[in-house]
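Quick one, T. Sequence first:
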Amino acid sequence: MMYINNLKGKYVQHLLSVDDMSEDFIHEIWTNALKNKDTNSDSLTGKILTNLFYEPSTRTSSSFYSAMTKKGGSVIPINNVKFSSVTKGETLEDTIITMSTMSDCIVLRHHEVGSAERAAKVSPVPIINGGDGNGEHPTQTLLDGLTIYSNNNNNLDNLNVTFIGDLKNGRTVKSLVKLLSRYKNNNFNFISPDNLRYPSDILPIDSFESDKIEDVISKTDVLYVTRVQKERGSDHNYVLTEETLSKLNDKAIVMHPLPRVNEIPKEFDKDKRAKYFEQMRNGLWCRMALLEKIILN
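Structure tokens:
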């Protein structure tokens, strides 16, 4: 975890990037996440989480809300800043300092890369990065990693991983590549049109790029599908058909951080290889474990 010496001279534990999470930390979260299945507790009774979301969110904000309340805590939900003092010109830093006086932890979703780090520099309570522009989304990586790990015999090595869609703006892709790059013999395929390519400056060594999924789908172990992010200026349609998906091997899994537009046909939802709703369940359990760890540390 990242520790920042804030304005009060206190070292505070924040989660801003996948780089802040060691393998031991990740596996501890996954172990405790699996213990959270169908269970509640009162370990966070009396604690308050602020969900501070400058961008629309359904899954991340609701998942943190549910995770906090299942652990006995309370939530201040600020899921639309147009109804907050931000519209009056308040800076991010002042908003963070203000909300920290009422909270034990803040989950921040913001449209600017680096916003979570700005928040952490002034916050006397932990900041969890809930997505900063097209930068990172580390808690999504926790649930994505657990989904792959639990569907691959508790292993994250020797995988052929294919990412498809808006790879230029996809923060979930960038974070997951960071995690999987730590493990052995993983191959990465990046499938997108030229204008939505994965950034060349962070492209893993020996990765494969194409605009044709047919080049790699038969040898893919993990197919990670993303939508085109029109809110970040992307303009393209990328649609997988049932015929294309049928070329996956029987043990492959298909993931999507959601929301889905039309990238994956709904008919595929019943296929045993479809794991995107399992990802969401894993997200709740991971966030329960994370909040307990970071607030009670």
